[in-house]
Amino acid sequence: MTVLDELDRGLLHALHLDARAPFTKIAAVLGTSTQTVTRRYQRLTREAGLRVTGLPDPAGTRGQQWIVRLTAAPSTAHDIAHALARRDDTAWVRLTSGGTEIVAIVRAEPGAGNSLLLRDVPRTASVTSVSAHYLLHTYLGGPTAWRGHLDALSPAQQRELSRPAPTGEPVELGETDRVLLAALAQDGRAGYTALAAATGWSASTVARRVDELRGRGALFFDVEIDDALLGITASALLWMSVPPVHLDAVATELASHAELAVVAATTGRTNLLSIALCADTGALHRYLTTRLALPAITHLETAPILRTLKAVAPLVTPAGAASVRAGRGRPVR
């Protein structure tokens, strides 16, 4: 079993600060060689599920995200979850609550109908209930990483890798931008030569566009890894109700809790969603009964996460993986 040491954690923290930083720069910050950082990155990719993914930020692109909850018969829930995971418009597909509930994020273009919400799910007879919650605001998650990934580098090291905060108006994405984002979704560290081949732009144009999209908050990078390697064995979705007058204050406070990886305001019967990551069930219980026991939270539903079938990155089939490798070019070094 892979064990993360101090250097692995430093590399993980560095990637969260700047996922496309050259390995030469990361090595200098970590005080090691470029070859060592390259080998560690390759090992974690191979053995620990490390994956860097470029994603459009809804706040910077006017995109929409829905949290969809489906309840299905135990005999079909697993197959439905896998079918959802294969869709291009889904992320974070999870089985919860004894394996009969499926929770997924569904992405949609502004003003566009969504086939999953409007057509596909109603035609699935084994789905016994569906609820959709529009994601209104993210307090923690997306571009803001879980603190469990951010505990390895000193403040001075973080300053060397940190990027300026995004500024500017939301970006209207063109068709070539979407091709670029699709390529970065497969490999967030793909080299500019490979991205140029995918888009038809020159490598210098791709580099400028990637930097512009990042600078305006339209593109961010997520770093995936098996959280069990960080000592996480108990995770749960927390569906909460908070009076609107207290929602912002409660969500802001929860966003500072080390146990939470996501805090988001949503529509629906509950209006605040969080994901708790804890060392074990005892730690989860202590968190629920102490730090989370805020008077303003009037309702709490805890749904243990049994399995994650898809995180933020698209699934790569064996054939797809071969084609990605064939056209990847040199990754960012």
List key phrases describing it.
333 residues; alpha+beta; 13 helices
Walk me through the topology.
Blueprint lengths: L5 H12 L5 H8 L3 H14 L3 E6 L1 H4 L2 E9 L1 H12 L4 E7 L4 E8 L6 H6 L6 E14 L14 H7 L13 H12 L5 H8 L3 H13 L3 E6 L9 E8 L2 H11 L5 E7 L5 E7 L2 H9 L9 E12 L7 H10 L6
Antiparallel strand pairs: 1-6, 2-4, 2-5, 3-4, 3-10, 5-8, 7-9, 7-10, 8-9
Helix pairs in contact: 2-3, 9-10
What does this structure look like?
The structure is a single chain. The chain has 13 helices and 10 strands. A hairpin with a 4-residue loop joins β3 and β4 (101-108). Strands 2-4-3-10-7-9-8-5 form an 8-stranded antiparallel β-barrel. Strands 1-6 form a two-stranded antiparallel sheet. The model is unreliable at 317-330 (pLDDT under 50). The chain is globular, with a radius of gyration of 20 Å. The chain has helices at residues 6-17, 23-30, 34-47, 58-61, 74-85, 115-120, 155-161, 175-186, 192-199, 203-215, 244-254, 281-289, 318-327, and strands at 51-56, 64-72, 90-96, 101-108, 127-140, 219-224, 234-241, 260-266, 272-278, 299-310. The longest helix has 14 residues, at 34-47. It is an alpha+beta fold and 333 residues long.
